[in-house]
């Protein structure tokens, strides 16, 4: 069985627990395959937490859920020094961040001080506490959920932390047919039956092996230039259409281009191709950009949103036409 087949089987197993949400399941797998952090946004009750927990159960990896609340302290996340009364010395007790898959549940309900505690872990894969720097696991991934900011008791994430998330997936309510299936599964106790089926058939080593394969995906010069043009357009919208001058107040950083490369490579790899196409890039672009750009007040007055700006950029930037045999323009 090929490595790609293992991850296709993983998605099938996830679908036995999560009804619908195809994009969510694929993005979760892509984040894991690239080592990128994932931000899931949507109202309560859309199985965000269940999806991440189910993914961790399918992999022989350590998992910890952190429930973010307004009274959470940084030490509750990274750990702290505890006085040993017998020896009189301080002993560092690791916090829940020292796991391979960390679910930061309702991340935007915690105050900025706690958000900052996560930043070093997400950026450097290490934490500093008690004057010492400690490495996190090689497979370390943060999968965070957040409720829409319009809800009470939420704090907007700092821009620096948002930029550390590779993907920002916005979830919508299920269709009527999907919700009907959820009802039927609940009535037949389907979720309880599937827990026996969802055995851990993948390992962290398998994931790291797949990451190595993805890093070797072929990306033509034309596709590289296309990715740079797409993210660059967020900083120079008026050069593509003068009527869009001032619509964005914040454009995407170069980290967005790197994330786009990694995510598109993983998507191509999952489809058992050894090269990246413009379609892979277009498919991943909205989730790469929507949390990295910000529409200005003037832009919102013109009814622009982050997603509509991304759609416009896709429309404006010419798509390279590649020869499928040689992968050249």
Automatic annotation (TrEMBL):
UniProt keyword annotations, A-Z: ATP-binding, Nucleotide-binding
SMART domains: AAA (SM00382)
Domain AAA+ ATPase, chain residue ranges per copy: 34-175
Coiled-coil region: none
Molecular-function GO terms, alphabetical: ATP binding; ATP hydrolysis activity
InterPro entries tied to this protein: AAA+_ATPase, ATPase_AAA-3, CbbQ/NirQ/NorQ/GpvN, ChlI/MoxR_AAA_lid, P-loop_NTPase
Pfam families for the chain: AAA_3, AAA_lid_2
Lineage top rank: taxon: Bacteria
Family the UniProt entry places it in: Belongs to the MoxR family.
PANTHER family the UniProt entry points to: MAGNESIUM-CHELATASE SUBUNIT CHLD, MOXR FAMILY PROTEIN
Record's protein name: MoxR family ATPase
């Amino acid at each position: 069985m090929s490595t790609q087949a293992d991850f296709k089987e993983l998605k099938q197993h996830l679908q036995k627990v999560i009804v619908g949400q195809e994009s969510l399941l694929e993005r979760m797998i892509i984040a894991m395959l690239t080592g990128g952090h994932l931000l899931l946004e949507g109202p309560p009750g859309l199985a965000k937490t269940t999806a991440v927990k189910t993914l961790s159960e399918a992999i022989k990896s350590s998992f910890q859920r952190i429930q973010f609340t307004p009274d959470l302290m940084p030490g509750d996340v990274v750990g702290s020094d505890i006085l040993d009364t017998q020896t009189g010395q301080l002993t560092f007790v690791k916090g829940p961040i020292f796991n391979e898959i960390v679910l930061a549940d309702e991340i935007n309900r915690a105050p900025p001080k706690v958000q900052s505690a996560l930043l070093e872990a997400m950026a450097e894969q290490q934490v500093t506490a008690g004057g010492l720097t400690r490495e996190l696991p090689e497979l370390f991934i943060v999968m965070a959920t957040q409720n829409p900011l319009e809800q009470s008791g939420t704090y907007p994430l700092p821009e620096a932390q948002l930029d550390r998330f590779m993907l920002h997936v916005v979830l919508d309510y299920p269709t009527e047919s999907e919700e009907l299936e959820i009802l039927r599964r609940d009535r037949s106790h389907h979720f309880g039956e599937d827990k026996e089926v969802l055995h851990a058939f993948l390992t962290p080593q398998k994931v790291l092996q797949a990451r190595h394969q993805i890093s070797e995906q072929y990306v033509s010069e034309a596709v590289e230039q296309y990715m740079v043009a797409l993210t660059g357009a967020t900083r120079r919208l008026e050069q593509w259409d003068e009527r869009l001058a001032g619509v964005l107040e914040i454009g995407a950083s170069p980290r967005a281009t790197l994330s786009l490369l990694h995510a598109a490579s993983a998507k191509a790899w999952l489809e058992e191709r050894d090269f990246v196409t413009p379609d892979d890039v277009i498919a991943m672009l909205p989730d790469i950009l929507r949390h990295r750009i910000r529409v200005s007040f003037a832009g919102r007055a013109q009814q622009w949103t982050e997603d509509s700006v991304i759609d416009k950029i896709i429309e404006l930037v010419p798509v390279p036409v590649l020869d499928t045999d040689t992968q050249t323009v």
